Amino acid sequence: MKFDAIVIGAGLSGLVATAEIADRGKKVLLLDQEPESSFGGQAWWSFGGLFLIDSPEQRRMGIRDSYELARQDWFGSANFDRDEEDYWGKKWAEAYLDFAAGEKRSWLRKMGIKFFPVIGWAERGGGLADGHGNSVPRFHITWGTGPGVVAPFDKRVREHIQKGNVTYKPRHQVDDLIVQNNEVTGVSGTILIDDPVERGEKSSRDKAGEFQYQGDSVVVASGGVGANFDLIRQNWPKRLGNPPKSMLSGVPDYVDGRMIEITEKAGARIVNRDRMWHYTEGIKNWNPVWSAHGIRILPGPSSIWLDAEGNRFEAPNYPGFDTLSTLEAIMKTGYDYSWFILTQSIIEKEFALSGSEQNPDLTGKSIKQLLKRLGSGAPEPVEAFKKHGEDFIVEDDLETLVDKMNALSGEELLDYEKVKHQLVARDRQIDHKFTKDLQVAALRGSRFFRGDRIIRTAKPHKILDPKNGPLIAVRLNILSRKTLGGLQTDLSGRVLGEDGNSLKGLYAAGEASGFGGGGIHGYRALEGTFLGGCLFTGKVAGTTIGNF
């Protein structure tokens, strides 16, 4: 049987593309190497943050945003500097900004997606108005987190499956794209044995058979390389120092990048391999689902950030400000980890954990549980990590805390007097409203935003004052996450070859395409733009094929 379209990958971008194609009366084959339990891909595990511009939610919070300001922030962060490799990425960035300022919210609202009323302020930037970072809060948390984003597309695709418009085949691993006369005409691969693993768990790669299918169009929506540490290290840019010898994985094992390489062998062009987005606030999951499972702390601005030798990071390397600048600073120390030192007062107000499973109140759309978050005490998932997580140390006095930090790392790198000196110096800046400590100035400034004052920034206080204790230290690991480069695509989602011309019959969406054009983010992301990039690229590719 020949299909109008074959979509490779049942993650968010693949589901969006499938739904858009099938909505237009086309017959779609949806293939995925994982069991049906992982339908929706890694988006299901996400916090569900979406980047919107000048939304009603922003305006209700007193945030004055505009397309012009968002574009300034995006291009100041992306720092596009490669003529050929960035050509289509820049065009996709312009198109996505139009989408985020225009139909994106209404399109999602029509499918039932709603947003938590308090807007998050991610990636606050590197300190210059025309440089990296969000000038205003734009991180809209989906009511229902990642599963809430996936749900309407899951529903649309399953309805088409019931109608016979979509044929879904899990455990079908694509190994090759079929190319005839410079046109992609189908796929071939391995049927994997059934494996009853739960969502996100590592599944078997044992072979049960083979397959081959023909299609007028093929969409590569297979994700990035975040779980492939060897490939991450191979592509690691020198500008970020040496690659980490040890890191955690923020994505399931199946995010291995193999389909990107398979597509390259078929003639596709990959650009910006060295651009990537990894987090610096990773903690080992005490209850892991996949290999080397890490969770990212979404920190407020008050924790004191020290490198492995106990030196405090300088601006803009504060919690929540500039991810890649901090990653570079950490890797250039020669160590793979760093430390937060904070208080119970800070953890109660400022610690959130990324991921749908770490936010049961938002994921479950439970007002009752949400009220607990807004009350006293840290959220239950955070307290669980504080109690069970091996990266957390809780003590009443600093000297014992430092001793246990050294014991945890297995290296006698931290000197108590040195750490104490820096904390005492910082605490003296709390005695008056003016300060030369830029982090103290920043956390005070953040409280001008009502959202931060309510749920994200603790009242400025002295770290060493016992009434704010106990003291808490958290070892922070490098956490792999996103591929910013990928298959280069034009504004219709068509994959381009090395000669710059489109490969007939071949499209890409989501992270496999660098979220658009082989690198819509350039060097840096503004957050809330990864799920949005999957939505947008899937919508564009699906619409193009559906209308063809």
Automatic annotation (TrEMBL):
InterPro entries: FAD-dep_OxRdtase_2_FAD-bd, KsdD_DH. Keywords: Flavoprotein, Oxidoreductase. Coiled coil: none annotated. It holds the Pfam family FAD_binding_2. This is FAD-binding dehydrogenase. Residues 4-531 form the FAD-dependent oxidoreductase 2 FAD-binding domain. The lineage of its organism: Bacteria, Bacillati, Bacillota, Bacilli, Bacillales. NCBIfam families: PRK12834.1.
